[in-house]
Amino acid sequence: MNNRFRHRILQRLQLRESWVIFFILGIIMLNFPFLNIFNKSDTLFGIPLLFLYFTAGWAVSIFVIYLFTLAVTQNSTTHHGTKEP
Amino acid sequence: VKTGLASTAIISLIYTLLIFLIAWYAHRRKLSGRSIVGNPYIYSLSIAVYCTSWTFYGSVGKAATTGIDFLMIYLGPSLTAFSWFFILRRMVQISKENNVTSIADFISLRYGKSPWLGALVTLIAILGIMPYIALQIKAVSTSFYLISGLQGQSIRIPHGSSELSVPSGFLLALILSLFSMIFGARRLVSSERHEGLVAAVAFESLVKLVSLLGVGIFVTYQLFDGFGDIFTRFQALYPEKFSQLFTLGTASTDPYYIPSFTMLFLSMGAIMLLPRQFHIMVIENSDERHITKAMWMFPVYLFLINLFVMPIALGGILATGSSAGADFFVISVPLATGHPVIAMLAFLGGLSAAAGMVIVEAVAISTMLLNHIFMPVIVRFPPQAWFPLLLINLKRCGIVLVIFLGYFYYRIVGDSFMLVNMGMISFSAAAQFLPAMLGALYWRRGNKTGAITGILFGFLTWFYTLLIPSFSHSGWISKELLSSGPFGMGLLKPTAMFGLTGMDLWSHSLFWSMLFNISGYIGCSILLHHDEGEREQLHKFIGVFEYERRQRPHTESKRLSKPVTITQFVSLMTKFIGEAEARRAIESYRGNRELDAEGNVSEFELPNLKRFTEKSLAGSVGAAAAGAIVDSFLSDMGSRMESVYDIFSTVRTSLDQSRESLFVRLKASEIINRTLDLQIIMDDLLALLLKEFKLDAAIIQLTDESGSCNVKSYQGSNRHPINDQHWFMESRPLCDLVLADRRAHFVNDTRLKPTVKLDRTIIEGILSCAHIPILREGEAPLGVMSVYSKSISGLFTEEFITLLASLTGQFAQAVTIVREIEARDNERVQKEQALLKNARVLRDMEIAQQIQLSFLPDSPPELSGIEMGGRCISAAHVGGDYYDFFRHDEQTVDLLIADVSGHSVGAALVMSEVRTLLRAQANSTHNASSILQNLNTQLYDDLTRAELFITMFYAKYNASTGRLSYANAGHNHPMICRKGQNACIELDAEGLILGVKPAVIFEERTIALQKGDVLLFYTDGLTEATDPRGEMFENGRICSHLGGVSDLPIQEIIDSFYQAVTEFTGSTTLQDDITIVVLKIL
């Protein structure tokens, strides 16, 4: 089940549209409305909110790129596999 | 605590040596083919050349003054990494295919190899990068003072009695120049990867990361108790500052505050467009698959290197009490807390960051400088042997120039800016390439004029609104300009163009430069068209890519007006890149191509060779210069690239065939299928060619059975009859060549001394001609089609020849079919005639048979006391057998049987002659021997002439006496079957065959016949009838058979003999004529 879910996610990530959507999402997240939500001098567990938002958001975005590259390399290897059985 | 000058210098020296060692090792590994650089990890690390001393020192400074917005500089590139899979990969592919050497090369290549565009991009890069290099020099020299505890701006070296004072920044610039030359300008070929450089940069990136992490961990966990501790203590001490640093937009009163969006935008552009980033990511990429890994590893690097920036900044403020000098917290905080080792680590990290950036930047820009500023000038001079030496030294000069420009900017602007803000000036300059770059990859309409206009406008705006104001503090420009605009025009104030106030310097500049840039680019691109050179490049950048493009054959649209040999191209390349490189390049070209006997390529291949030469040169001098070099070389040779006359226009279908080509094929097949009259087909086909392709004459020759070629159809204007004086005769040798090697031969320009003399043809005004064999695949040619053009030289492209060959192929099919039909018709007619003739002969023979049968007696004469009968059956229609009865009176009757040799018509004729002669003598009283004697005399001449013989047995029977007198001319002996006797009596008499000797005496004999005797006269057909085993019927069988049937009536005796023969031979047809005459004495 877990495996199938992962496979389907990777499949979706192979689409060019997914890349564009995430790219635009990233730009939106780094601009006015979203930033304003976290643009407060509050702290969470002693860590400033904005710092937390950037750090966590960044880590997530890197993970998404990682998934993308995983999808791409998987795609190219399966392609390879079907070509030369 | 200070480390001291000497130890700092020594440690720096050792570190430098280490880097050299690594570079050298990487270079050695590359030479031995075991590269350590060709992997995604090194690639990702080398991209981190993005993190310069700006990151190392400046980020902390920025974080301590304006707060967390410094992260935007790194979030932007991290976000851009999403697009690398498409944009960066494509850029790498294009660059590898075209030997691109720099970003200026890349952009100018896309826009028609424009030298102006290349020069403009180079100029922007040089000026734009000045602040950036200045930043590095400032950072390193400042940190050097900090760590060594030196005062002032220079290093004093005792020199004899006096002291030599060298500014440390100058010294640094000198060292960096030397470094860059060693790493990046040892060889000229700049499209080649510099593995030593990459290895050094990657190592430095690693040092940066380790060093900053080290300092971060030291500050966070040594000086404080982790993140939470720093944040809490800082918030408690400086609550106002805390909220300012951790929120965006609150520091907008700061004159150097840059909004986060501006930083995000600029950094997103910079990661791809800064010359050094382009160089490392595109030019130094060894495998495009590395990009996929780098897409997440590079962001991880950025993430790690920035993780501790905020704690260091806050820790620094906490430790020093203010944010003054925050740019160098990384060094000053460890120093202030008494940890010189950590400080030294930080110093080395900063040194790495700065050195890596400066070296790559200098190498990248010097390449651009050489290829786009120096080369366009150099190519105007005739190539010299010392050019390679000149070029490499110019490149070295370029490096020095780039670094020292940065140094001078640093001297002028000096300390008036924070590090980050200086860097942002460079980012703004690089951003000017963005529209043209994106357009280059994705916008088909983007053209050269648009790109030049856009970049130029953007550059001027940047220069006016950002670079000039940056000098303001140094007093180089008057304060008047900034405060009240040029000549007092407030609207043109550099910091508030057109009255736009309230924006910071960078956003203001970004807004106006992008506005002018983008509108200039789009506007000109929409208004103007591509020129031809651009269209040629366009397909390399946009459209079907990778796999599909490789599948699709390239259609040649250019030709060289005068052929140039490979050797000439080699000697040209030698002059620019040296002989060894030139030889190597041409070997790789030669490898997989067909060359003719003289080692030259075909005319169709020449444009490829030219492009290859350009590409090889481009690897060293850039595409624009390479194009100029080859063009000027060609014009010296008297040759030039000219457009192929495009008979197909530019519309191409998906099958890569033009509609026109398909139309002509269709028309041709209509013509060919309409009729079987070859003459009409040929005339119509040639007329079609003349009409569709603007040809002036066309001729079809076909070979006949004897192998000679004859003109069958001749179309065109101004025709005169083809004779020996006709200009077409000069093409005969070419046509013979075509027939011999079965492929098309063409002359694309008759004026260029073709191999065959074409004087009269040239006088006729013919510019180009082609001769195409008429043949079916794999068969012998049936003829030649020749086409001539008076208006267009270079008409015959590979594509056109292919089309013509396909037409002649269709036509050859038609010729073959028509010839086959003709041959079949001929055969049929001949067969019919033969049949007809046969039938006629047969009828004649049947008539002859009838006549011959009528020569034989209908019925035997009736004579008392005897009974007679005879029958002749021929094997063929006519035969040579004959028998007859002549009744003289009541008592006497003559019997004869004869056989003319052969069963031909001749035999039949002789037989009729015999009959005539005999009938004439029949009533005479001559005895049998004299009749034969007469007959021999009369027939001798005729028989000799006809080479025929006759055997004959002549008998006379007298009923009253019962005696039979007879003579024999070599005939089979008749037999008598007498009652009561078992054996037969054979009648024999001396005598020679008729027609052998002119005078022969025949013996006359008589025999008395008794009642009941049965006489059998027969021809040799009876005795010589053979059974399947080869046994003959023989006299014995005749005798015994006769004995068995002698009591039967005459006709039944005769029938029984025929039946016996048929049974004996086992066949219904006779082998020879058989005649049987029977006489029975009653």
Description:
The complex is a heterodimer of chains A (85) and B (1082). Chain A has 85 residues and is mainly α. Chain A is 80% helix and 5% strand. Chain A has 4 helices and 2 strands; from the N terminus they run H-H-H-E-E-H. Chain A has helices spanning 2-13, 16-29, 32-38, 49-83; strands at residues 43-44, 47-48. A two-stranded antiparallel ribbon of chain A has the order 1-2. The longest helix of chain A has 35 residues, at 49-83. The two termini of chain A are 27 Å apart. The model of chain A is unreliable at 78-85 (pLDDT under 50). With 1082 residues, chain B is an alpha+beta fold. Chain B is built from 39 helices and 19 strands. In chain B, a hairpin with an 8-residue loop joins strand 8 (768-774) and strand 9 (783-789). In chain B, helix 3 packs across helix 17 (340-378) and helix 9 (195-223) crosses helix 10 (226-237). The longest helix of chain B is centred in the last third of the chain and has 58 residues, at 798-855. Chain B is rod-shaped and about 185 Å long. Chain B starts with a helix and ends with a strand. Mean pLDDT of chain B is 82; it is low at 546-553 and 649-656.
